[in-house]
Structures are given as structure tokens and as C-alpha cells.
């Protein structure tokens, strides 16, 4: 990469632009004056404590602002603030060899955030009247940035490049400098920009503007000619110091996860040598809750045994148990502790300690509630968690009543836009994936909307564009359409159309949905240029607008893996997993446990509910209460092909089989084929799936089938050829393409071919529907069987009618024989 210098006329702003293209005509600004740029208000060493206090996070202050002896004043085993009646907590014991010789207050760090991770998956396009835009990114408050680089990738249209204009960049209202906008045949124009570290704070706004935007606005059809796109691969590379925030429980869930961190999180889950199902169950509860907090950013849970993580992590164990160089504190009650990592005190360990599985669950439940104490340890009193009801996930749209669109917005969103040029209004909502409607039924969406009233607006061509999940639905007009309405409007009457009800087809609703509303306002040809930048006009969607799913039912056919990857269904039907059993082999590996925790995190993210009532078993229970739980639960299992004994037991009564550590599909017998043909199930891909399994050496994926222990329940197995393949599944599930390709009851992922899905087993109905509607549904689903039944009834009725008509014919055509036979009988 060559560094090219560009000199600008602006004396107050400068930056270094490192162009990856060896173009001698490119010019960059002189970076020597960067240190002369004054930082934004509130930025700098003197402003750091104020920033910390504003966010109510005093523990995140810079090194110089930490109170003297802060760590010594708050030992890990402090007993201040314990609930009355609970015994004092001893401090965790660390090996002398592992104890640090000197206190470490910070730690070097590096991180990278892309424009896609900042929420702009398609990048930022400046075009037409929207020739300036910005993007917000946040950073954890316990990080101090010492070096920052923006690796900028642009795509510039030829027409815009021909104007010899430039792109101005600003960070937090302070100018960074300008870039020349040139175009080439390459996919992008790449630059590297040095950013003054003092300008990077916890919440930042990076904005872009084309310098002669005002002139471009006055040109007609500028949207089709002048475009520059900040590509989603643009990244911000940061270097800095990780501060020591102390061991206060008030900081939780920091530093393990931070809501201001925009990149994916990774939280190490640590166990002892003899891991128990209760410890994994507690870890699943916490993982699902952290999945809720991580939201769209994503989170993973690497698993360690008998060793401590290098950075932050969570440790599950029993009192007195030694894990690595740390011995867990003795306590008769469940307890929580935040302690310094013995290997590096800047990083912290959260200790979840309990004698029994129930105590571990109690301690984990306490983590789901906010902490209002500054202590580093807490004895947990008796906790209780109310069971959830079916389909009550808070992140799923309510199906008992019409839901206003305003209820579906985030706190920072609004249904009002200003000016002509603006982004679309986006309304995100999630729905249970098993919503059912009869053919011909639709989902009403009522939109009450208001266009601005200005004489220069072309009301005939201005439209409200409505799309759902990328599918165009309708253009709503400003005025009513019709001959009489048009005449009335020309006579000066009010013909505004400010209400319309869309009828959505059920197949348009997915588990995760986005409704987009865009006010496409067109000015008249005679409109002055000044009105194009008028931001005083407003367009809005009224609060009374709603979507109504109240007449839908919960009914579907299972198995369907698309429901599982999209919404963890059917396990999320009861979002706390009170009717779900999490199964692992008798001796699970770290990769198997970590994958199960990843699935727990995905479920929490999909529903907004922690798996507070989950149960974990190692192996298949032979009896007792766990066997009863097995018979009455859906089953989510994780395994690899090396767990041969466990897999054989799991697949004994399924469409799959295990042969010499190779997964295959059983060949259906004649009776199964006949049953499938009669029920109209003609699209199974048994042979194709079996061939695909046998032709791939390394793969990972999912299989699903009817539970052999309860015909109304479902099994989903996460399977891979080995731990290495299983560990790649987390990255696979972050790909929208792979998620969209998972369907049916068999999904196989390989590095070479991506995702392939099949359906090899029979489906069964799941949900609630009145008996008379079930009759109609079965008749609709089993057309062949219904046709054969109708044919049988027709033959039966026909034969009966034939016999009766034959008898009647004989009596009519042979009356003498009938009378003679009657006379003989009388004699």
C-alpha cells in the first residue's frame, strides 16, 4: 500500500490518507496538522471523569482518575451489604505462584468495527437529494483509545467523478478533511485515514458530505447520475488501553459484555474437571440472558475445563473446588463473586458457586436481576421464577389483539420524517413461526398517514412506498384515486387519502420481519431549488396505525428446521424451556457444550426470555424423574459422530442410522412408502440425502424427527463429524445465506458446497385447532386418501344401488312369477 499525500486549502483540519491504489494523481491532505485540531467538547484527559460520571459508571474512569488503593479497598471476599441472616462469604483462594506481583491498571487492546457491524449492512449511499449522511458507533467506556484508523472503501459513479468534487468527513461535529472522488473500473477506491485518538469517545457520529451537494440538489434526475457509496467493508481499527474497572457487582454484565460494544462478544464459560449437568444448565440460563443483551451483535461461549480464561470469563463450580489456580470459596448457600483474574487483574472472573444443582440455578437466577450494591460478593437468598405461558415471548408480536406500529418501535425511533430526502421508516417485529390462516385469509395492516401540505409538492406523483421483508406491497397515493374523487379535487374539494388497509398474505410473515415505509415526495418541475433543502416539512405515520394477527391460529407441520434456526421453535413455544430437555452425550466435549450454549444464546435473543427452567442430561436417562421429563418434552441435542453409543440410542426409532461412524438415512420399507403415497407425502428426498451424507467426509448441520418417546414431541439434533466441524457452526449461523437455506428436516453444511437441505421423514401436525377445522384440514392435506375414500364410498353405494335396482327390475318385469310365488306361499 502506498502512502499518497494530498494537500488541502483548509488549515484547521488535516489527516493522513493512505491510498491502496498507486495513483499519482490522487492527492491527500497533509497529516502534520492533525494534532492542531481541537477535540470535541468534553473530550480529553480533563473531560474523562465527566464522561464517566455522566454514564453512571465510575469504575470506568481513566487510570489517573482511579481512587488510590481502590482494589485494596474492595477485596474480592468483602462481606458488606450481605442480606440479613446469611453467613459472611470467604474470599476465593489463589495460588501464590499465580498471584500477580504488581497491580495492573490497564491492558493494551485492539479492535475493529465495520460499517456493517454499525448497522449499515448495505453500506451508506449518498445520492440524489441525500448527499450527506452519518453513522453512529459506540465504544465501551472502560476503553481509552490511543490510536485510530479508518479503512475507507468507496464506490463512486462516473458522473460524480467527472465533476471533480470531493467528500468531506466529520467526526463528532469536527472536520477530519476531504477526499477526492475519483472513479475507476475497480470494485472500490480504498483509503486509510488516521484519526486523532482524542476525538474518539464512547458515542461517536461519523458523517459524510459531498462538498457541492447544494448545486447537485438543483439538478433534475441527480439520483440516477451522482452516487457515492461507503461500502459495508469499511472498518474502523482501534488501539488503546483496557482499564481496570474493579470488582463491583454493580458493573455487571460489564466487563463480560458491554452494550456499547458493536462487535460480537465472546464470553468464556469455565468448569472443573468433573463437569455436571447442573453446571451446564446454569450456564445455559446465563448464556440465554447474555444472548438477549448482545442483541444483533452476536455472542459466543467458548468452554474451558480445569483452566482459567486468559481474559474475562464465568466460572461455574462447587464450594472448595479448585479450577486452575483458583479455589472457589466455601459457602453453604449459593453465592456470586467477581474477582480479579489471577493471570491478569485487569480482567475479571464471575464465580457462580453452589453445592447442588438447585443452588447453582438459584445463583444464576440472581444474575438476571440488576445489582444495586458495590460489593464484590453476594450470598444469594432463595429465588423464584414464575413459569412462562405458551407464546408469551416479549419479542414476539402479540396475537391476542391488534398491535399499534408505535408499540413495535425502539425508544430512539419515530414514525415522523422531515424534509424531502430521508431514510425509510423501519418497523421491526418478530412473530411466532407457526401462525396459521386458511387459504384466502389475509392479515390486515391499517396505515394512517399524512403527507405535508405544500403548494410545490407534486401530489399526483408523490407516493408512500410500502415494503415488507424486501417485498414491495403497494404505493399509497396522496389523494384518492377515482373519477369522482378527481373531479371533486379539481373543484377544490378535499380528496386526501390518509387511511388505507393493506391485506397481507400469510406467507409474507416470517419469524423476523421488517416493514419499511418511505414517503417518496416529488417536487413540481416549477418548484424553486430552495425548497429541496426544506427540512421544515414533516411526513408521518399516525399512532393509530396497526397490524392485526388476532385471527391467526398456532398450527403447523413439524419437523421444520427453518422454524428452529429462525426462532428456536418449537422449544421457544414455552420460552423458558420448561418443556424442553437439553441432551448431551455421557461424556460431552468442550465443543459440544459450547455449541449447546450458543443455541441457548440464540433462543434468548429470539424470544427475549432466559432459559430459566431448562433441564440438561448427559446420555439418555433410564428411569426416574428425568425419564418422565424425557417423555413429556421436546429434545434439543448436540453430538458428534464420535459419540457412537449415544447417537445409536438417539437415532434408534428415527429415519436416520449410524453405520461405522457415518450418518445415513434408512431406506423406507414398502409399508412406509405406501403410507406416504396415500397421505400425499410424495416429496421425500431419502436417497438424495443418504448419498450426500456418504459423499462428504467433513460436515456439520441439523437433523430433526418425531420424538420416539412421545409422538407429539420433536427432536432436533445438532450434529457434526468432529469437534472441529462443530466449532465452525457458530460462524455459519451468522450468515444470512446459510440461515435462509436451512429448511426441511435435514440440513448439511460443508466448506465446499455451503448449505444443502432435504426432507427425509414424515411430518406431523402441531398446534391447536377445533376438531371440525381439523377434519377440513386433513381433507385438504390428504387429497389422495380422500379421493380413494370417496371412490370406495362411491363403489359401495353403487353396488348397493345396483342390487336394489336389480331386485326392483325383476319384480317389475316378472309380475306373474312374483304373484305365483306369493300364491304358493299363501296355500
UniProtKB/TrEMBL annotation:
Gene3D superfamilies, sorted: Galactose-binding domain-like (2.60.120.260)
InterPro entries in UniProt: Cell_synth_B, Cell_synthase_bac
Compartments where found: Cell inner membrane
Region forming the signal peptide: 1-22
Domain of life: Bacteria
A biological-process GO annotation: cellulose biosynthetic process
Keyword Transmembrane among record annotations: yes
Membrane spanning stretches: 784-805
Pathway: Glycan metabolism; bacterial cellulose biosynthesis
Pfam entry (one): BcsB
Cellular component, GO annotation: plasma membrane
Annotated membrane topology: Single-pass membrane protein
Disordered as annotated region, ranges: 22-94
Positions with biased composition (Polar residues): 22-34
Subunit structure and binding partners: Tightly associated with the cellulose synthase catalytic subunit.
Family affiliation: Belongs to the AcsB/BcsB family.
Entry protein name: Cyclic di-GMP-binding protein
Organism of origin: Erwinia sorbitola
Gene symbol of the encoding locus: bcsB
